[in-house]
Specification:
The chain has 11 helices and 7 strands. It has a 7-stranded mixed beta sheet, with helices on both faces. The two termini are 39 Å apart. The relative contact order is 0.18.
Amino acid sequence: MLMKELKNFIMQKNIVDTAKQAMQRAIEHELDLKSLFPLSATSSATFHIADFGCSIGPTTFMSVQNIIEAVNHNNNQASTTKLPLEFQVSFNDQTNNDFNTLFRSLPAHRHDNYFAAGVPGSFYGRLFPTSSLHLGSISSSLHWISRVPGELTAAGRRDSIQCTGLDEDVARAYSGQFTRDMEAFFDARAEELVSGGLLAISALCLPAGAVLAQTGLEEKLKSFYLPMYYPQAEELEASITKKRCFSIRKLVKMAPPSPEKSQKLIQTSASQIRAVSEAIIKQHFKTITPDSVDLIFERLKEKLAENMHAITSPTTLHHLEVFILAKRL
């Protein structure tokens, strides 16, 4: 499982890099600052960005910086008076996220008009006041669903510690939970985004017909599931447009990173895997000791070194990486 997550983090960094140009082009064509700030030609205008599922960085900072650069470029290219923009950036993640680490690594070189804040809570519910966001961004986080489907734990079903797709009943339960979660996510964002606001989504999906490989388990793991589901790309698209609150303005399928780039990313990925997985492990295995947790992730580092070739091989990266820009109607 952790090896698969490593590949996902590598792809997440690649998504941020690849999505930069798509983001700039999309914002240039879809963001109308004059309609968002009709009365702010001379006074300061606050552009509110929310980054959902921020974890502890650093890719989240890169993603936000790409957005700010794109908005500034849009502002500079305006045919009329340039707006005096300030940026309020809200970084969101679960309450157990290490926000201290996140803000200690906040880029020191950010501009004077870039203000940061943390907003703890699940992005499957409301986090901001009505019509208060101008742009929301979520990168490689929507496969973390809100909960393990209750029918699985109640029935003691076992496919794997995550949804591999090999058991149809398990896959159906996960797909149902994903559908409910996506409805909640887009309902919340529809309330929070202003009319004409944008929602940038970078996601890991599965190509049509693909399933995850099955993972071997020990006895202690029989009641352990991860709340993680990789949708078909079509599932995600349907969730966005279902209630006609959003229209899809841009959809880009991205190439996987090169083996050389992947090797560099591996060096910084272990800490990100721990940031996502450690709290889940501790919550389920309540008697696990800190030394045991350290040992798990030390062994992960060893496995990374042993399996470097397999991890970086393009033939093993089966996820479909997509960038979607949706506009609030």
